[in-house]
Specification:
This protein has one domain (7-179): Up-down Bundle (Four Helix Bundle (Hemerythrin (Met), subunit A)), CATH 1.20.120. Helix 4 (63-95) packs antiparallel against helix 5 (101-123) and helix 4 (63-95) packs parallel to helix 6. The chain has seven helices and two strands. The chain has helices at residues 7-11, 18-37, 49-54, 63-95, 101-123, 133-157, 173-179, and strands spanning 160-164, 167-171. It starts with 6 loop residues before the first helix and ends with a helix. It is mainly alpha-helical and 180 residues long. The longest helix has 33 residues, at 63-95. The chain crosses the membrane at residues 14-37, 104-125, 137-155.
Length: 180
């Protein structure tokens, strides 16, 4: 397994870098949509892109392409809505100081992979009978499960705080287990 994973991903924590990567990945469907049909985009009202796509003349795009453009915009909206939870999970996991770099990186890159797969299913394969909508929902749920897993790992590694009169003691759980 170690031969398949670059050494720096096992030894160095790069999880914070996955937050901007998730944001850029989430914006990719919108950028692609603008690349395809940017001439119909109105910069004064960028949130109106779905309405603009709906109002395209019938000869401008096929119904299949129109549906893909709308799904691309919806995939971007979903990514932006999901980003704060992912960012909070990464920050919480890092703040706990108890997770290995390999574990953090695996979760974060796993999340990015699931998001990429989700967007591909949503935008390109949603209209395929081989991949029902439930497939996309399952992939989305797995991404949310990774976020929740990061929170659980962070909670399990967070320090215990013992308040005793005017003194406050922080006991790191891994050290507390070792001393028992």
């Amino acid at each position: 397994m170690e031969g398949l994973v670059p050494k720096f991903l096992i030894e160095q924590n790069v999880s914070y870098y996955t937050i901007p990567a998730a944001m850029l990945m989430g914006l990719t469907p919108r950028v692609a949509t603008l690349g395809w049909y940017g001439r119909f985009f109105h910069a004064q009202y960028p949130r109106g892109l779905p309405d603009d796509i709906q109002l395209l003349p019938g000869n401008a795009v096929s119904p299949r392409v129109r549906a893909r453009l709308l799904r691309a915009d919806a995939a971007m909206q979903n990514a932006v809505e999901n980003l704060p939870l992912f960012a909070a999970a990464v920050v919480a996991a890092n703040a706990s100081h108890g997770l290995s770099a390999a574990e953090l990186n695996a979760c974060c890159f796993g999340y990015l992979g699931l998001r990429a797969l989700y967007m591909a299913f949503y935008v390109f394969w949603q209209d395929s009978p081989a991949f029902p909508a439930l497939t996309r929902t399952f992939i989305w749920a797995m991404g949310v499960a990774v976020e929740m897993y990061l929170f659980v790992l962070a909670a399990r590694q967070a320090p215990l705080v013992v308040v005793e009169g005017a003194r406050t003691w922080r006991i790191w759980r891994s050290r507390a287990r070792d001393s028992l």
